[in-house]
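User: Quick sanity check before I run a bigger batch. Here is a single chain. Can you write out its predicted 3D structure?
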Amino acid sequence: MTSETLADRQTAEHLSSGERVLSFDDYDLVPQRRLLLHAGSPVRVGTRALDILCLLVEQRGELVSKEQLMSAAWPDTYVHESNLKVNIAALRRTLPSPNPQLPYIATVPGRGYRFTAQVRIGTKVSAVAEPVLAGATNLVLPAAPLIIGRDGDVAALTISLTLSRFLTIVGPAGVGKTAVALAVARRAAERFEHGAVFVDLSMIGDPRLVCPAIASALGAGGHASDLLAGIVETLRHQRRLLILDNCEHVVCATSVVADHLRAALPEIGILATSREPLRSQYESVHGLAPLACPPDGQELGRDAALAFPAVVLFVARANTAVGYELAQDDVAAVGAICRRLDGIPLAIELAAPRLTSHDVRGLLARLEQSFEWLNYGPRNAPARQQALLATLDWSYRLLSDREAMVLRLLSVFAGSFSLEDAVGLAGDSQLLDADLAWCVSNLAAKSLLASSFADGQLRYRLLETTRSYAAERLKQAGEEPWALMRHAELVLQFFERAEHDWRWRLPGDWGALYAARLNDLRKAIDWALSAPSTAGIGLRLTAAAIPLWEGLSLVDESRLRVGRALSCTQDLGDLEPVFRLKLRLAYAWALTFAETLGPQAEEAWRESLTLAEDAGSVEYRLRALWGWSVLQSFSGRHRQVQESLSAFAAIVRDEDEADAGPDGERLAAMTAFYRGDLDGAYARLNALAREHREAGHRPGIARFQLDRFVAIRASLAIVAWTRGNAAQAQRAVAAAVSGAVEIGHDVSLANALALAALPVALWSGQIDAAQAHLAALIENHARRDIGIFGPVSRFFAGAIQHARGDADGVDAMRSAVEALTASQFLGRLPYYALTLAQAALDNGRTEVALAAITLARDHALRQDEQWCMPEVLRVMGLLQWREGDHDTAEATLRQAISLAETLGAWAIALKAAACLVERRRETGGLPDAAALLRALCARVDQDGANPDLGRAFELLDLLDSAPVRQAAAR
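Assistant: Done. Predicted structure follows.
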């Protein structure tokens, strides 16, 4: 049983015999106690609602005017009549009448209200039943303990949120805004059928990150420039509650975002917590007051003291810490402590565990001595904020000198940390390892550090308010520059191991180890790059972070942070070449994954290669040549790719870098495929797949950006399908996608989805599978903003629309093809254009089809993409047939079949043959139709899903039955 329900029971059980109890049906109202019971169990009623109920029941049967009720509930305060209506409605929901036609509270139109039930006056209540806790909701919310003394606030705020749908809970630090917000969210769950999303804004320090934080919590997408639009689209047509917690440091940005969301999406709810209002035009503000404390100078009994929430909270926390029970002799001192702490829950929770070293009176005396400097906080800060700072200051003053030093030092950590981290941070200071361990343990015992187990390791963290306080103390002590430098050095030491570790750690283990330190890494980089004197370590930190950003596919963050670091290198002429080289390579990769492949990316790779050659680094020459090859492949320059990969292969051979060889061979095989060597590419990729079939032993991706296991199978899928091996292609796709998901590498997953899974699913006629792959690609793009795959995802969305019979798919595909052309992402552009042309023909839009075929043919010839030239001819033949030039069309289709057979593109040959036979049947048939189809059917896989093979067999059945039908007719 919680301390809150315990207090309720105690209040109900210990009614003095002289107190009046007003009873009706199964309800008991004790006005003096301000207590309502139902069948002996306390009923939660808001403060104002209870005032109204007391007056109505006292005047039972008589008309009570609106003015009387408002005066009783809001004395000396003007409020609108709607507040009375809201509370009356709340009372009716709380007190359902046995007779729905006769509610307990009847409305007298235009005049007031009347209580209708028969009321019994006595001094006894029913037996108290065991309280039943509400069942858990399905909201996406952090776990939160039951809160004490906030029932009235929660009830009133739930009503307010329902009415306004945009509510901000304001109050001082530590007053319990977050806990109340979570309680309100759970109470209001039924009104938001799509659940709630919790966004903790305390984790960000930059107003520009408000939108990314909300988008991340929602899983919303979009580029950095249109995240707000992505959030709106994610929430559209939903009744969802958005909880924005700890907004005080980003008030303006949060207000702008919230205003936009509220205007665009009136059905969503917004519940914010902040130390000050957001000042939004839609916002309803509720000030959360401290917990009620016993009044000074009034002698109270133990039970009466427990009617005050501040006392209940203090006793509950002290009981948890030391098994404390409130005694009558301690009532005055406990009341004084609560008043001294101004009823701030956080302050009370910090003070109560100190009973481990003081009795109640000693604790009070210590508090009184320590709070002589109550105005430690800014004089213009709210009084309650000063009270919280005073509480923190007091907790700090209770520490030994060494404990205080450790607390100050630990404030530099941005997230959780281990004891080993703390030891490393202390370095060669006067703190010995044993002293430090003892201090950390004591700080955790005194509730200044929160502790938890993660992956079998004890980890600690400072609450944000404590961390901020300790950080200010660190600055005042003059220790901040040294501590932040030590923090940056510690983070650097940790991340300089990352590049070495990915060579032997499993990807999942590697990512989990280093991702956990991402916030500390960001903090260290931001601090170091903020001043010229520390920019050197900032650049080294940025360089050391590159493997993590690439491993986690944080493409946009890498581009921004590396770009900032490169701007600093101009002032550091003595920067070691290897760091400059790492930064330049990372920036080149970021540009390669951008939505537009411009000359800046080309120049970045050229400079990277020059720097690698000047540094004499074999490793970075390989990386630069590889990256340059990928850029050339993305932009459709396949001849240049082969030249770059020849240089790559020479380094592998001459410098004994055999481990890099498979990655070069894989890209070389795909380049050979594009240029028409299907058999050679297929043989090389099959050999690579056999050599690298152990998913658990694949190397890390930090070297060449793509996971080798995934990339090989994605490439093999395309080649295998084109050669007619449908089943193998589908197996390769499944392995590539599952492998990328397994290691959690979004760039590899996007590559597998966009360049293999989606084309193969569409070729296979598996539209539902294609839709699932598209959803995964869109989610991936939203999560990581890998720009090059934005237009690709839009293209496949249009292709799926068309496959499902939606004519609008043609325009969606055409728009995407135009975007791909403009972005210079030209690799496979002929394939995209031909898919568009086929869809346009299916919808009778010959002009669109002709333009798309022309685009495909021109780029196929310019880029030497011979693999799709048979498809160019096939679709051109269909267009010619549509225009009535049947002889030319047949010649073009036969040319497509012949070229496909020459290349070994048996799937395309079969498709072209089926098109030719199907159309010639309309004009008298084709003498060699059956032989042509049978020969090509024999060349393709009979097991995999292949609509063209199915159509070919249907045509063969029709051809075989034709002579029988003709003979029967004669």
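The longest helix spans residues 947-969.

User: Great, the batch can go ahead then.
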